[in-house]
Specification:
heterodimer, A: 5 strands, B: alpha/beta
Chain lengths: 424, 307
């Protein structure tokens, strides 16, 4: 019996593919999911901060103070923005939301009226927005400083944070500014005793929530995420199969026979690329048509942009298939390598889990994944309703085409080096 | 038709072709005979333009294969050693594909496919998938695919490896017919019987060198002996071999077999057996062969073709 065990172990450890899939792949995926769900990589203060775009339309001392208070929170980093720019960025999916302190903020604060605070956001980011609200509401509730015991804590927090960024000499000035600001707010409240009675802990903490981006044709972000994510990941698997057909041809001698014929080596590779593209376009088209019939994804209003995004995605993914085939020495090697790469780029690119679950660093790394650009493109089409002429949408298509061109050029180089020369 | 001059090629520091030269006339059936690893396939890869030699030159119908590769490719049909066909496609579809690479008119190609499949006895199964064919049938389609564009030269690299006797005979008949119709053929093999049957002129290659070449009968005459006596012995050792070699200077040994090159086997056989008895050798088997290409190879290299 032990002889059989030893023989099996010997064979197993000789099989690199099995080793890769048994040990390395689970480790890589576990690491990625730990980053996404397990809080790994979120130990530093910098990682905890959420970049909150804020537009101060009131420009009063009170509104500026509020912004400073918000910025003092460990979970937030305030980014001052212009309203029109921020709204445009939300529509294009570049940012999740913008917090607007409207005109009259200071007056409302002084007289105890509900604060004119609005959060404009992208409905597809509801999960992030929910978490953001949890940070904003308690803070805004403290502003009328009825609960004066919170003020020193707020000041201490903010001061501590500022001291981390500024020179010690500013300490006195900052303290003085705090005193003046709170004194003026206090005077306003004393001048209006009726308002003071209305101040409850949460009364003024209402934030007007406005969906700036939501689907006009009932496509839900979850559906777009599911269809887009699965479509791109499965496409990568299927085009790898098409690409590795090159290695089969090498092994079976048909590639050598093709080289005997008057067609040139480049034409053989371009032929493979073209067929992989055509299969990819067909696969994505079928996938979205199926999603339309089975799940009600509204595609009829988006055909031109969807077609363009399908072409871009197909080009990048099929280039990946040919690329893997050109760098691998055998079909088995190509399959192991492609499985590893596909699962990684799919995980970091948002095919498996939404990008916003991941820490900031992972979201930055996501841009190397074709899945990321394709997913963003599909959100542009079905969620953000961007037109085919929109620069943001076209940029995503251009990035996919660029990825495709780069991978194809690398594939061409390695095809000549690894395949044609070896066949000869 | 084909001129190969002083070809040299090195792989990973090992010289696999060491100045190979030969000429093939138009309409000639030329054999390149040699054991596995002798350099036959490397020579063919250079002739077929997919491999560049380190030095030397090859011309086909006056065209330099390095400078005018595309034109050369149209002139030659190559039958590779592997069965290079798409197994999931039918014979007809395979031939349509391979023929289309030579830009043949679709109708002309179809006609040519029907003719060729008929020639190889496969017309009735042309629409069956290749994977349903026997090895011999696949080999026939493999050869057929090299003939569709009416090449001036047919290069065949060990085309009968693993083929059943029936298919082998059919292939020989077709190839001989093509030769009689004027096709120039370069045929590589390590099967001496094939070269004996098919080739008019031969070059024998070993370790990347042409060790002899010429008309088949002349090559045989170049060997001083007429016959070969092969005796398999159980208790053969170096001492015994040395003793026997002192009587027969051309004696060769291959494992348990002694090879006596003689002029008259009837006279020599009695002497050989007598000597074996004298040395208490246990004779297992005796075989006598007339002069053939294998003896030529043995005479020139000291080893058998199938080593």
């Amino acid at each position: 019996m032990m002889k059989i065990v030893l023989k099996d172990l010997k064979l197993f450890f000789k099989d690199r593919k099995a080793l890769l899939l048994t040990f390395l792949l689970p480790l890589v995926l576990a690491t990625l999911f730990a980053f996404a769900f397990g809080g790994v990589g979120r130990n530093t203060n910098a990682d905890k901060e959420y970049d909150l775009p804020v537009c101060d339309l009131d420009s009063s001392a009170a509104s500026k103070m509020t912004i400073l208070v918000l910025d003092s929170l460990k979970t937030l980093h305030i980014v001052p923005v212009q309203l029109s720019h921020a709204q445009n960025d939300i529509k294009k999916g570049n940012i999740d939301c913008v917090l607007i302190l409207h005109k009259g903020f200071s007056d409302s604060l002084n007289i105890g009226n509900p604060l004119p605070v609005e959060l404009q956001y992208d409905e597809s980011k509801e999960m992030q927005i929910g978490m953001l609200q949890q940070s904003l509401i308690p803070t805004l509730s403290m502003l009328p400083y009825k609960n004066t015991e919170h003020i020193p804590i707020m000041m201490k927090n903010m001061f501590g944070k500022m001291m981390g960024k500024r020179h010690n000499e500013t300490e006195g000035k900052v303290n003085q500014q705090f005193d003046e600001l709170y004194q003026s707010i206090g005077e306003g409240i004393e001048a209006n005793p009726n308002a003071n009675q209305n101040i409850g802990f949460s009364m003024n903490a209402q934030i007007t929530m406005t969906k700036l981006v939501s689907s006009v044709d009932d496509n839900t972000p979850g559906l777009v995420q599911a269809i887009g994510g699965v479509a791109v990941m499965m496409l990568l698997f299927s085009v790898t199969g098409v690409g590795t057909g090159l290695l089969d041809e090498k092994q079976e001698g048909t590639l050598k026979k093709l080289l005997y014929s008057p067609i040139r080596p480049n034409q053989i590779l371009f032929g493979k690329m073209l067929s992989a593209n055509m299969i990819s376009i067909a696969q994505l088209t079928v996938m979205f048509c199926y999603a339309s019939f089975a799940f009600g994804l509204k595609i009829s209003n988006h055909w031109p942009s969807l077609l363009l995004m399908i072409i871009g995605t197909a080009f990048a993914c099929s280039a990946f298939g040919v690329f893997v085939a050109s760098i691998a020495q055998s079909r088995q090697q190509a399959q192991s390598l492609s499985t590893l790469i596909i699962l990684i780029v799919s995980a970091i690119g948002g095919s498996m889990i939404p990008i916003f679950f991941m820490p900031a660093i992972m979201q930055k790394i996501a841009v190397i994944s074709p899945n990321y650009w394709a997913m963003q493109g599909f959100f542009d089409i079905f969620w953000r309703n961007l037109y085919i002429t929109d620069s943001t949408f076209l940029t995503r298509v251009a990035v996919l085409l660029f990825i495709g061109i780069v991978l194809n050029l690398i594939a061409l180089y390695f095809f000549k080096k690894n395949i044609v020369e070896h066949v000869s | 038709m084909i001129s190969v001059q002083n070809l040299r090629k090195e792989y990973n520091g090992k010289e696999v072709l060491k100045g190979v030269s030969f000429e093939i006339k138009e309409g000639e059936f030329f054999g390149l005979l040699g054991p596995n690893g002798a350099g036959k396939t490397t020579t063919i890869s250079i002739l077929s333009t997919i491999l560049s030699p380190d030095s030397g030159s090859v011309t086909i119908a006056g065209l330099d294969v390095r400078k005018q590769a595309q034109k050369c490719k149209s002139l030659i049909g190559i039958v590779p050693q592997e069965i290079a066909l798409y197994k999931e496609m039918s014979a007809f579809d395979n031939l349509m594909f391979w023929g289309s690479l030579y830009n043949l008119n679709r109708n002309t190609l179809k006609t040519k496919i029907f003719e060729t499949l008929h020639l190889f006895g496969l017309a009735d199964r042309m629409h069956d998938n290749i994977k349903e064919y026997s090895g011999g049938m696949m080999r026939r389609v493999n050869i057929a695919s090299a003939l569709l564009h009416n090449p001036k030269v047919l290069i065949m690299d060990e085309p009968t490896v693993g083929v059943d006797p029936q298919s082998r005979n059919l292939i020989f008949e077709v190839v001989e017919k093509l030769h009689h119709e004027g096709l120039t053929i370069l045929y590589t093999t390590h099967y001496m019987e094939e070269a004996e049957r098919l080739c008019e002129r031969l070059a024998i290659i070993d370790n990347g060198e042409i060790i002899t070449q010429g008309v088949k009968e002349e090559l045989k005459k170049s060997v001083p002996m007429n016959e070969l006596i092969k005796i398999s012995i159980n208790n053969l050792n170096n001492e015994v071999f040395e003793k026997l070699a002192s009587y027969w200077p051309h004696l060769k040994q291959e494992e348990e077999t002694l090879l006596f090159s003689v002029n008259d086997s009837q006279k020599e056989l009695a002497k050989v057996i007598s000597k074996c008895n004298e040395l208490n050798l246990e004779v297992k088997q005796i075989d006598i062969q007339k002069i053939n290409l294998e003896m030529v190879f043995l005479h020139l290299t000291g080893k058998q073709l199938r080593d």
